Amino acid sequence: MPRLTEYLENTIVDLTSEIDNNTANVQRLNKRKVEKAFLGWVQYADDQYTSGIPLNLVTGARTVLENNGANVVNTAAPSGSTDWLVANKFMPDNELDTYRVRVRFNVNPTLNNRNLTLELDIGGAVGTIWTRTIRLARGATVVTAVTEDLDFYTSETFLTNGGTFYLTCDGEAGVFDIVYKIERVYRHAPADELALPADALVALTPESAYTTTGSAALIGESVEQWRNIISGSTAPFAEQTDINRQPVIEEAGGRRQIRFQGNGDFLDFGIVGDLNFPQPATDYTIIAICGTGANTGDWLGNISGSLGQMGLSFKSGRLFFHDGRVFKNYTEAPPIDETMITLQRDNTNDKTIVYQNLTERLNETSAVTVGTSTRDFLIGAVNNNDAESMDGSLRYFFVWKRLLTEVEIKSVYDQTIGV
C-alpha cells in the first residue's frame, strides 16, 4: 500500500505539471495568433518617376522622396491597419507601435563622388529622427541602387504629423524606381484590447489618463483623472482636483507614463467597496507597473500600513502598499527600466507574496493584527496628508480580488512590458 500511495501521488504531481504546461502552451499559441493578426507589412511602389523621367535633385536642395504608392502589395497587411502611405507621408496607426521600413531607389548623379543624404522627418519640435549619408562613388551618370533599413517607434508627434522622407545631394541627380516596404513588428495594444485575467476590478493604463478639460492627457499635461477601463466597475476613476497635486504625463523610453513628483501628487479613488479589501476574508492581487526614471533608493521597501492609511505609494523609490496591516520589510535594488511588481494577499494561509517581474521575491506568513480600513484608496500617497508621497512613475495599475496564478501573472507581463 505505501508503494501504491507513493505511485498515485507521483502520478498526480506529473499530471498537474502536464496540465500547467499545456495551459501555458495554449496561452503562448493564442498570443502568437494575436501577434500574427496585428503584425505584417505592406509594400508601396511609385510609378511616376522612371529612368527616363526621374525625380530631379537640385544641388543642396532638400527634396521630398515622393512615392505615389501606385503599386501596392498588401496581402500581408496586419488586421485593422489603415493605409500607411498618404500623400507621400508615412502615417502610423497607433502611438508606440514599432516599425521596420526598407527604402529602395535608384540614383543617377551628374558628377563623380557625390554625397546623398536620406532622412526621416516627423515635423514639429522633433523634426528629423533618422538620417543616413550615402556616398555615390561609382562615377558620373552611373546608376547606384540604394537600399536602407531603419527601425523606429511611433511617438505622439509621429502619430500626429506622420513621417516624410527627404533627399539632399551636393550635386544634381535623378532618382527613380522608388519603393517603400513598411512592416509593423510590434503593436502597442490600446487599453480596450488588453486581454486581462478574468474578474479584474481595476485597470488603469497610459491611455486612460485625462486632463481637467476631460480630454486624454498629452505629454507634459497634468492628470486630473486616471480612469478605470473595466466597464461596470464601482471604481470608475482616481481623481485629483487640486491642480497643485496632479501628476503629469511624460514619455520615457518611447512609452507614456504617469509621473508623481514627490511633492504631494496623488490620485484618490474615494471610499470604494471593491477597493477597501475588507479584512479578514479577502484575497487580492495588485499589479503596479513602474516606469523608468526617478525610482531611486531601496526598491520594494515596506509593505505596511495602519488602519488610518490606504494606498499605493513610493518614498525614495520604495514601493509601499498600505491596507490596514503591517506586513514585512523588504528591499530590492531600484529598477533601471520599467518593472512589474505583483503583490498578493493569500488570506487563507495568512501570507504575503511579492513578485518582481516574474521572480518571486517574498512569500511569508504575515502574522499581523487584522482590521478593516474605511479610508479612501489613494495612488501616490497613503493618506491625504501626503504621507509617503510618491517620487516615481507608473504605467499600469491593476487590481483583482483574488489570487492570480503564475500563468496569469505572466500573461499580464507579456502584454505590458514582456514583449
TrEMBL record:
InterPro entries: ConA-like_dom_sf (IPR013320). It comes from the Bacteria. GO terms for biological process: carbohydrate metabolic process. GO terms for molecular function: hydrolase activity, hydrolyzing O-glycosyl compounds. This is Uncharacterized protein. It comes from Aquimarina algiphila.
